[in-house]
Amino acid sequence: MLGTTQSLMDFRRHELLTRSSTSRGCLAVFPQGKKSRQRVAVGDSSGSVTVFTIGKHHEIQTQFETPVGPKAVSRVTLYDDQLFFVAGPQICAFSKKGKLFFGFESNMTESARSFQIDTPFIFAGGEYVLTTFKEVNEVGYFMSPDRINEMLYHRHRDANNDEPMTSNYHMYLGCNDRVLRTVLGNQIIAEAGCEAPISAMSFAEDARGKDLVYGTSNGSLGAFRITKGDELARKYSLIPDSRLGSVTSIACTDINRDGTADVILGREDGAVEVHALSLHADNAAPLRMWTANVGEYVTTVATGMITQTDRDEVLVNTFSGKVISFTLSDADVDISNVLPKLMVARAPDLPTAQEVIKTVKAELKNAAALQQPTVADAPVVKIAERPLPVADSPAVVDKPVSGGTLTVLAPHRPQPITQEFLPKSKQSSPTAHDSGPSQLEILHSQVTDMRSQIEKLQAAVDLKRQEFATISGVAEASKVRAVTSEFSIRESFSLDNAAVMTLTIEADVPLKFVGVQCDVSLELLDSESVVTPCQGAIGRDAVETKMLCTLQPAEGRNNRVHVKVRSQEGHGGSIKAYVVCEAQPRSAQTRVFQIRPLCLHIRVVESEVDWASLPLSTLTIQGNFTMRDMHGWLLNTLPEIPEVLTSSSLTNSLFFRNTFQQTALSVRYVKGEAEFNSDSLTTLSILKDCITREATARKIQIRLQHNMRKESILRHLQLLHPLIGYQSSLVAKQKFIEALKEIESQDEEAASTLAPEYRQILADAQKIESEIKLQPQRHQFLKEIALTLFKDKSILFGENATQARTTELDNLLNQYDPQAVENFFGVGSDFIASQSTEPQLAPQPHEGLIATAPPETPNEETLSTRRLST
């Protein structure tokens, strides 16, 4: 479990500035210089990088800003006090004074997803390719077997040679196939499996050694210790009990000054967390000390002395471009030692707020009597019920927020103080100020100037609108056509270990709604957004459209929609999302997400599954196809397969696990032959249909041979028994709730004499109804899995699945009895008694071909004789 849910630390929140939308890794904190506060660099979608610092009055002081480029900044990093960033194929470097001293256009065809500098070497990681440059010259590249999500380097020193060489660098690649790869000299030297695809990495160093800390797409946190031999040793792995947001960024520093590095991480759902490592046990898992939520996707987290001069802060960059600082509070430290003295100074002789209000009311009354301009036309200012700060100090307002306190700093705007606001001891004689303007006259003059500026701006807007109407050929400016507004979108569609697919769409502007259209049936599970299903006729595409609804942002999160769905395997399709922004002129963007036929499967490493203990059935496909052909067919059938076949070996192996039914699948293929092993007949049947359909479209003749074992059916049913049994009991109990409640309302004594099981139903009535309401289609979803298994068994074993037999099975599933269902499938107690208990070993490839066990009942098919189902 990931630490604790209680916040053991307290932070104050400061919103520093807002830029254009940003990508991951586009914020960096400069090392400590002569000044006490550190500088911050942030790159955005405009192609520019801004370097700023915080002044004494907490104002933003821009040090320099790079020119706007044609491409968005994808990564920002530092080497000492030099700034490096990537924007498209261009790599640029600026000095601490803001001077461009290095830059070139690389030959990378992929956008840099990760970027590291150790002069003279530059390491740029694209989607699949890791490229190494020595200054402007490419000196090597590595093609990863799967998508590279994050990259780090570790340099080991050569005692005999001080000059750095590429052989001195261990590159650590966190890949999408749940493997952490170590690359040396453009060759893989080690691989380590992880519980989920790695999404973020960072180094943590202290007196005990150096650790590689990683976060994954399912929200887990783990670490490897880098040994003296530069090898990786597993240190800890924290897998969450429930679904957490994907880890998007990690920073490691001693934030609480206890002598050990703390882990600060950000998540895609806006959560920011601080985890503290143990002071004594080296391999102990970290404890979550604090968490807060910024309300949107976190692109980068970093640490440094940004607004304070005596302690590190947590710096957060969000997708919409916000830069937020969280400062550690310490109740034992006086506030004057934490903030500049100017921020906490209070003038003892200033009047209180009540005295100010009384004076203003009297002045308003006199002005109304004389029919003079008053402050009624001026903006309303709420005055806090406490002594005012000095005139040259910014106002400080503390607001409680989740996980800390929000401190709002008003701009530094000195205000004139009239005689009425001064203490009597400091008021001068009336004749000294009779000739000067009064406070009311000053306010009235400011309002008049502001209105004049607004009128000028309105006239300029009307003029430009009329010019655009003339260019567009429209007679009236009010009928001018809308202009497409541009906004950035970040989308994700992922599957977790609970077989739940999560669709998240986030924009850098407020959203009006998101229209969702899907051509496969989906079960809506949960949503933080407002879901409105389409009522009535869907339209001319009604045959292809299975679901149509709109998603509206939840209150407080107007730029994000989030919904959880589940789909049954067997039918592939797509989800189309039409994202409509709130801003005028209103515009929309479209995003498409693919749903594979085996959409509930996830990639795993081979060692995660005990293949020797599983009763595996086998499907073998042979034909005149290449490895690239088979890879493309699998890409359209299974998720988490890389789009490009990068493996150079003669055999490629993939391993999967069904997140809902916990069945396993192994795939091995070479040129002209592929073998699939699984303990689920349904999985093999879907693979058989999909690959046959793809081969038919390519006019490639293939031969199918399968060895189906009834033990696979028995194991599949044993995995379904607890799921269907629980849902069947819920449905059965729900039927009694209304009658039992009526008995209880009429006669409480009679209700107390009910059987214990009925009294328990009454006690759990609210829980039962809430579970069924939360997932009303769960029981039918599970029944469909069992019915599909029966149909696949009948086809693969050459049996006849009549309508009467299907209806009989449906009745058995309603009155669920595990033994009766097993007997119906022919794998009951009689079958178990007749079978051997020897385990079935998973087949292994041999000499470039795939070894296939001799089938019990050989069954070969060719495309010329096989009748495809539509």
UniProtKB/TrEMBL annotation:
Residues 836-870 are annotated as: Disordered. Residues 487-593 form the BBS7 GAE domain. It comes from the Eukaryota. Residues 711-825 form the BBS7 helical hairpin domain. It holds the Pfam family BBS7_pf. Residues 29-327 form the BBS7 beta-propeller domain. GO terms for biological process: cilium assembly; intracellular protein localization. Keywords: Coiled coil. GO terms for cellular component: axoneme; BBSome; ciliary basal body; membrane. Residues 440-467 form a coiled coil. InterPro entries: BBS7_GAE_dom, BBS7_hairpin, BBS7_pf_dom, Beta-prop_BBS7, WD40_repeat_dom_sf. Residues 612-706 form the BBS7 platform domain. This is Bardet-Biedl syndrome 7 protein.
